[in-house]
Fold this protein.
Amino acid sequence: MEISSKHYKHCDLLKIQGRVDSSTAPQLEQGLKNIMDDGRFKIVIDMSELEFMSSAGLRVLINAQKTCKRYNRGELLLAGPQENVYAALDLAGFTTLFRVFADVVTAVGNF
């Protein structure tokens, strides 16, 4: 798994490539924590090149969403998930907890 982040004026973009499972979820958690530790809580996760996400990755997402939404500081948005990743999010009930966008530009434009 590879993670890259980019800071924009209104939000941060975190791009995930590859697979998120129990061995790589801590990397994702650390990437999100680095952004939130800097006091930035408006985050877009680009999932367009994410092939697989396990329950460990889903747990990282829900914890980050809780932190971002605490005290109305921000939100975690998901952008461009592939069909199988979207199906996993939907099955876990995450599509009601997160705003999911078709592409990064639309997601970033919502901040």
Q: What stands out?
A: Strands lie at 2-7, 12-20, 42-53, 75-79, 99-101. DSSP finds four helices and five strands in the chain.
